[in-house]
Design goal:
The chain has 18 helices and 8 strands. A hairpin with a 2-residue loop joins strand 7 and strand 8. The protein starts with a helix and ends in a 19-residue tail after the last helix.
Length: 476
Amino acid sequence: MNAMSDFLWGGIREGLLMIWMTLWPLVLGFTISGVVQAFIPKDGLRRSLGETTTRNTLRASLLGVISSSCSYAASAMARAVFARGSSFTNATVFMVASTNLVIELGIVLWLLLGWEFLLAQILGGALMIAFIALLGRRALDRRQEDIRAAVAESVPEMSQPTSERKWRSLDNWYRASRYCIADLTMLRKELLFGFIVAGFLAAEVPDTFWSHLFVTGHGNWTVLENALIAPLLAVVSFVCSVGNIPLAAALWMKGVSFGGVVAFIFADLVTLPLLLIYRRFYGPRVMWRMFGVLWCAMSLGGIAIDFAFQWWDLQPHRMHHVMSGHSFDLGWTLWLNIVAIIVLALTFLLGRRTASDDSVAIDPVCGMQVDTGSPAAVADHSGQRYYFCAPRCQERFVASPQKFLDAPSEMIEDPDGDAIDPICGMRVNSANPAAVADTPDGPVYFCSVGCHGRFLAGPDAPPGTQQISLGRKPRD
């Protein structure tokens, strides 16, 4: 019993230690990322990614950097960008940049592994994008028009932006707060799972296991083998985006080469769930081509960075200052975490305010903020359109809409109500309606979300949607 409790506490303790060390930089990174996403316009960049040229690839990289996303959302957004005219290579470059060249990932890297890994992430990310651009022209852009034709039917149209991104606009600050909270909400499971798994890997998995999986002590052959194997380990780790940084820290502590750890960090886009998503998006043949290109680019990037840092004498010493059983720091880390929690609470309160335009919406399934001009998926329910960060969220919503909607769907009449539902004619208590809509003639009250949606649908609603009938008499 004591052995089991020691095993569990050892792994959980290491995971909690990493969370404690990275809480404030995570909040800082997500906050800055929210501001960047809210204030830097992306529409002009989206419209200029048609051919795989150096300039367009740079645009795709920049678009990815300012569209910070988890790997699942990035894969869905890349499909949308490709369906609307981008080359397949540029769409893949966008996907890589939006998960590997983002602020929050860099801050966590710096704190857990040191500035050398942060520099390796930036330089290696640029190299990986260059390799993808070179390999993609032959492997990814082949017959891309046929693939685009099959994909475009399931991707909603992109609309024009409805507001300018001005620093003085309160709506933009509300939007930035919502981006921050939505990204944290979307990635909370990935982060928690990554930290806990990394804690157990660091504390409980013996070094002999890693020495059998990753060759050590053979010079350059070690670098080559580790960089080739590390992405394959990422395939079965099921952890992507920022969540794989704690796992990378565990691998570094266990003796994996510098280039192997860098390749693992880049491999967040080849986890098994994402490969299955690529298969569903584009078919098995394209999925395998994507995996081959990404694997080569990740491994080559890790190898090149390892050799370059050896040449420049920049490779870090294998210090285990974070994951070595030290106690929780109650100095500056404590105060910075307290400030981070206060900032997060204020951001949450600010994010509850609603922007006055319709350029953004909240995914009702995962809570992520979605740009309505370029959503990954949409669904219409009761005459109202909902926007999603990824097709898997759309599928869950379509299977059970009311599970993700706040108000009840059933029509409930209040015999003593003081208002009339204009769709069904039921009496509604205006003090406690199921839904309400503001009109030039004043508020209109509804007995259910369904009637509210049909009212909003208007006369141009799709077939089968009930039209507005303000003159309908109340039921007897």
